[in-house]
Amino acid sequence: MGTDAPRTRRRGWTKLLVGALVTVLVLATVAAGVGWWSVQRAFPTTSGRIDVAGLQAPVTVYRDEAGIPQLVGETDLDLLFAQGYVHAQDRFWEMDFRRHVTAGRVAELFGESQVPTDTFIRTLDWRGVATREYEQMDEATRGLYEAYADGVNAYLAERSAPELSLEYSVLALQRPGYRPEPWTPVDSIAWLKAMAWDLRSNLGDEIDRAVLLGSGLEAEAVARLHPDFPWDAKPTIVGGPPPASPAGLEVHAVDAAATTAATNALPSEGIDAESAAALAGLAEAIDALPELLGPEDGDLGSNSWVVSGALTDTGMPLLANDPHLGPAMPSIWVQMGLHCTQLTTACTLDVGGFGFSGLPGIVIGHNDRIAWGFTNLAPDVADLYLERVTGDAYELDGELVPLDIREEVIEVAGGDPVTITVRSTGRGPIVTGVGSGFAAVAEQFGAPVAEGATAEGASSTEDEATEESGDAAEEVDIEVSLQWTALEPGSTAEAIFALDRAQGWEQFRAAAELFDVPAQNLVYADVEGNIGYQAPGRIPVRASGDGTVPLPGWTSENGWTGWIPFADLPSVQNPDRGYLVTANNAVEEGGPLLTRDWDLGYRAEGIERRIGELIASGEPITAEDMSDIQFDTRDANAEAFLPVIAALELDGDAARGARLLADWDAASDADSAEAAYFAVFWRNLLDRMFGDLPESAQPVGGDRWFAVVGGVLGQPEDPLWVDTVGGGTGRDAVLAASLAAAWAEATESMGDDPAGWRWGELHTLTLTNQTFGRSGIGPIEWLFNRGPYETGGGSAIVNAIGWDAREGYEVHWVPSMRMVVDLADLDRSTWINLTGASGHAFHGHYDDQAPLWQRGETLEWPSTIAAVRSSARDALVLQPID
Fold first, then answer.
1. Deepest in the core among 65, 127, 198, 536, taking most CB within 10 A?
2. Where are the beta strands (DSSP E) in 308-462?
3. What is the pLDDT of residues 643-677, one digit of tens each?
4. What's the rounded Cα separation, in Å, for the pair 554 and 476?
5. Of 43, 761, 104, 200, which Cα lies nearest the Cα of 459?
6. Rounded distance between C-alpha atoms, residue 226 and residue 248, angstroms
7. What number of helices (H) and strands (E) belong to the chain?
8. Nearest to 688 by CA among 737, 634, 650, 639
9. 479 phi, psi to nearest 5 deg
10. Predicted local distance difference test score (pLDDT) of residue 213
11. Angle at 509 between CA 507 and CA 515, to 5 degrees
12. Whole-number Å distance between alpha carbons of 263 and 252
């Protein structure tokens, strides 16, 4: 694939509304001049008084200059009721859409194009698992979820669908008469399954290894393209920085012998070309699923760190967090505070921070005693198994065991219902018929797939099943099952309130023990001056293998034997060095196996470097320093290349490029010409070095590829230095060709004068509505999308505004929010959201935080009731009906 050809890859949602009729109707609606009335009638009331049935006592909703709601009430139940009411006021379309996704009911809204998505979700049964979690929940927590649902429904009772959000007016053009159903606690809990799926594991890396092996690469070469974590060169969370960090970006390849052994564990003794194509199809099928948090690969991750009072200007801890997720309009997060007028046994909440619309409680933030932040731990929690299926049974240890079988009916807007049959083994659902990739995985082992299983995204229908012959039913078919921790009921829904109420380290750890799926790194600080780290999560112990390849499911010698005990998971309190950094890097060397596929530590190293510089300066660390670190744009990849490029003997455009980079400080700021040129060079270099890899294995360009190329940067004659476009070999020739090609591309895209080049001109962020913003219909997208915004930062940089080298320079991953909590005075804490407090297009708070986020600025975060009242610009009293 040459650099002159655009890179495209199916990602995210398909077009949700298509056809000339819809376009005409939308244009007519806009042209008729009724748009503003349609928009404004969905805006919520934010001041005055509203009588609401279901409250025990009044709740006041204070909103500051940014429209961020802070709720003050007299009981937990009233606060959660009001939270549901306010979430519905601001974000109900988003809530309604999410619950359709998590229930496998998107086709009810958008038609038959969404049947494959619904089939996948129904097969995994997210809502069924959520229902079981609700049923096993303790009575007190169940009451909080019910109170939240009651609050949502109280707001729904006041308004028609078009009065809830503009999206319903647009939806009516395709599906007239739609009315949202009442909200239920299970709707809230099911959202946790979407979180778990998008943060699930290293499944993409496992597929990529198999695809590369099937393309003809030797195990050693595949290992070089998937470097192991450089334990002696990059910081770990618990261990801290390495004792003597070597210069440059030297990394270590994974054990090639281990890769070979894992490959030979497959029944077919390796991955052939057909198998590789099948797995590439699997990657595509997964990639087409809803990405409610963001695409799995690239820069999906987060930064968090905490500094003890021994190092700060106040003598108390500071805690920072910025989760890296896919950008969306509105932001994935909602900001809110839940405050009791007086803490009692009936009113236990005094908490603020970030949560999700549709989910009660606060997920990340602080209460009156402690603060906490999240980054993705990313353990390996999902495995594929090959199954021998005969009729309605599967083989296990020489015996046939009946499959668990159920039917699901998918309602389809504008079409007939679709009935699917879901089959499951004791480990998990059979996914062969869910997507073409899964079916092809089974076919690679030489056995036919059952006639009833389709390869285009839907399981066998009832009619197809009746057409199977008796002979076919007795045929042994090789199929694929999925075992995933989130498919068993867990306790994360309860953990949220345990975190919100925790008053110290031990209560925090008890709450973390409940936070089983998705497993997260948790950093901690409290008003007593303590800091800490805890890794929670339900992480499997395997009978054999390490979870990196599919294994035969017909023997109990493979599979999970239990979970890593919570007591064995990494934890530390008040480390001697006085700070802790988590950025998806490895936790510690040794200990239980969590995963083979860590983030390789570039962001963690960047944060460690900045903290180390502040400590070395002798000046205490301030809250402003913490925010400044979050916006750090220094590119470690560029730092490694700059001296190598400067030493090359070049001419022509390559020499011009080298001169441009000569005095650059490697900061990828939005207004930097050098950063723009280096990004173009890096993309060209990746394309030239790895353009002959299978399409699904093409470089994204983040930390893994920093390590792959950086690992041979000091080895000019390494075999990796091959120009697949121009034919040159050796490092210097490949770099020269890439520099020249980048100069030509940059000139074409940004003009002849390098003084006018800017990284932000290429690296733009468009905030896209997750439904209608991807419709492909210009007027609809104009209604709901915002941008483009010019940005700095980049992949595997602390300010992780990531981009995908396969597709261009546009933004794919972002710090979805930023917060700094000051434990000396919680009212001095700061926060910023990606977009704004409102989910209503054209509302004043729909995108008002985006320019601040773009510039690295934050807002004041009032926390005490006195500060909340002082900063309020609006106050709405929700009062009970006598």
1. 536
2. 318-325, 334-340, 350-355, 364-367, 370-376, 382-390, 393-396, 399-402, 404-410, 418-424
3. 999 999 999 999 999 999 999 999 999 999 999 99
4. 12
5. 104
6. 18
7. 29, 30
8. 737
9. -130, 180
10. 77
11. 110
12. 20
